[in-house]
């Protein structure tokens, strides 16, 4: 898991991002020229690596036509769980990579650095960072600013596009339109439910579930509340790709459509079969039998399975009825990915190995050995029948999600959205005040971004 349901997550998550509108430090002319030339050289070097990779077919496997073997050293950062011993996933993948690339005689140096810590460690000194590392995609902007992540070559970029849904490709695409990482798992949320209470058809509709059982949902959590507004009111974050701050956060269908969604949520909060899942209270209620539904991610799979026993089940997000029409709920989605360091001594081999760790073979092994849900579309049939959480996550990524933007302007969403959800729960926002309050929220979001 690299996202938490608590509101505190977002404060920590975005504290690292630069604030919109902050003035950069003033530099002397000499220092500015030095920094400019340094950045230019770094960009030229990174571009040269990407170009050579494209020309050499970096992602296509070994090429030892000359019969010579090249001594190569590669340093790799990965989570502890991936390298616990010689039979762990990382060791197996390194062994497989060596077989696929007999042109290399590789010396490996593995260290423990989790995806969530990658940016902080890399930024300390990009030239001393690992040649290959894993990162959470919300760190992409910072890694690009540090010139510590390499652009993928043509073959690797093609691999990423062929393997993944568009949202996963976008999750590792910079504002320049270039691809900088190889996704290997997604991050999003879905629905767990008690199959002894609901049928497979029942869980397609939130309203049906509310008629037949108890439903919990974190309405005052800004990582969840947008799920009603994206399809219901055309809520859009920073343009089609989620990376154009100038386009802001808008209700494309207008404030009237957004007000209709707000009124639905007011009714939801007042429904006796609904409970707000505040700070994980939904899971506790599930264990106690006080709710039949929780919305969460794979990180809670074991706990939910323990709570529900034989009734354990999961599904993609349901629809809800708005003005007589079924509207699909949509979750935020992101990814974890593998990157190579453009400062690596053996950048070509590093980029090839990064692509290999995100390959179909590696993702399949990652799932079989650690239960890491793959992003590779071709592996959907490899998910075991009883892995309901993995199947639900894949369905959400494919059919019911939007990319969570990673640009700093996204920081303007979290607190106002959380406050709006709280306003609904504490009845500050009612059927009578929904229009005025929704318009006020819309204007607030526009001002904060603009």
TrEMBL record:
Annotated GO MF terms: maltose binding
Domain of life assignment: Bacteria
Keywords annotated in UniProt: Signal, Transport
Family matches, as SUPFAM superfamilies: Periplasmic binding protein-like II
Pfam families reported for this sequence: SBP_bac_8
Family per record: Belongs to the bacterial solute-binding protein 1 family.
Protein name: ABC transporter, solute-binding protein
